[in-house]
Design goal:
Blueprint (H helix, E strand, L loop, with lengths): L2 E7 L6 H9 L6 E6 L6 H8 L4 E4 L5 H15 L4 E5 L3 E3 L3 H11 L3 E9 L8 H7 L14 E2 L7 E5 H7 L11 H11 L3 E12 L8 H16 L6 H21 L3 H16 L1 H11 L8
Parallel strand pairs: 1-2, 1-4, 2-3, 6-9
Antiparallel strand pairs: 4-8, 5-9, 7-9
Helix pairs in contact: 8-9, 8-10, 9-10
Length: 296
């Protein structure tokens, strides 16, 4: 199987060696493309000097996570790859991870996305987000089976996607600049009758910290979540409007009833932003219901 690993980078210097060297050590070969979103550190210089085998696209502006990944997906489709592997810049994989993902993708075409187990940066515990999605209390609760385990959502730190999935579902939606792209993509995957799952026998390490969320971070997360509900093609439009717009208004009213003007103002801004995106949301909902490579 011919695999293209796609890494979207922004100030990648801290993780370059662990990330790229893990791919070089993979028992299943993969071509690698790094799509750099205008890093301010030495990312481009290091890759050019130390990793000449890596294809590098140095963007002149930060395109965001989704648009940058779409560039790599387009290349994979045009150049005859069988699958893409989306890998976060702050992540790395085990030697057999790609080999097992590729083999299981062939055996289980009903899965549009397969992922390894997500460990934290130390490799000793489950990533907290993954543990929540997979409903696992600890690494000790992992199954020792070989088959994929269905999961309602897995974040896009390690996504193995057959090109056949891309041809039917497409790339990331332009509605999402950074954050929420993966949630929206999984919603679309389910609409097109694909499953998403992880393989309990292989792993990747994701070196991210869980920090206290700021007010700005909270508002961003709320906006992205409500937008993903508004754009969710598994709902009729009236349902999507209720789960996206009306849910935001309900939270606004609740904040006012508690006298929390700061959060009320935040929800006013969120709802106004979502309403302003309504035309684009309606267009995207119509487009992503089609069986073709949207945005690629």
């Amino acid at each position: 199987m011919k695999i293209l690993t796609i890494i979207v980078s922004y100030n990648f210097e801290k993780w370059i060696s662990r990330c790229l060297n893990s791919l070089k050590a993979s028992s299943h070969p993969t071509d690698i493309i790094v799509i750099d979103n205008c890093s301010k550190d030495r990312t481009v210089e290091i890759i050019q000097k130390e990793y000449p085998q890596v294809r590098l696209i140095a963007n002149k502006a930060n395109l965001g996570f989704g648009r940058a990944n779409n560039i790599g997906m387009q290349i994979a489709m045009k150049e005859g790859y069988d699958a893409v592997f989306l890998l976060n810049q702050d992540a790395w994989i085990g030697n057999d991870t790609l080999a097992v993902l590729a083999a299981q993708a062939v055996r289980h075409p009903e899965f549009g996305i397969l992922s390894p187990v997500h460990l934290n940066g130390s490799g000793k515990e489950l990533d907290k987000g993954f543990a929540s999605y997979a409903r696992l209390a600890s690494i000790k609760n992992l199954s020792d089976g070989q088959d994929p385990i269905v999961c309602p959502f897995i974040n896009a730190a390690f996504w193995f996607i057959p090109v056949s999935t891309l041809r039917k579902v497409g790339g990331f939606s332009p509605l999402f600049y950074h954050y929420g792209e993966d949630k929206d993509y999984v919603n679309r995957l389910h609409f097109h009758q694909y499953k998403i799952g992880y393989l309990p026998t292989v792993y990747g390490c994701h070196d991210r910290e869980f920090r206290k969320v700021s007010f700005e971070g909270f508002c961003r997360a709320e906006r992205v979540y409500l937008l993903s509900e508004y754009a969710n093609i598994n709902y009729r439009f009236t349902q999507a409007f209720a789960y996206g717009i009306l849910a935001g208004i309900k939270k606004l009213i609740l904040s006012l009833s508690k006298g929390n003007l700061k959060y009320a103002k935040g929800y006013i801004s969120i709802v106004a932003t979502l309403l302003a995106q309504s035309k684009a949301v309606i267009q995207v909902r119509k487009q992503t219901k089609q069986n073709y490579a949207s945005y690629l």
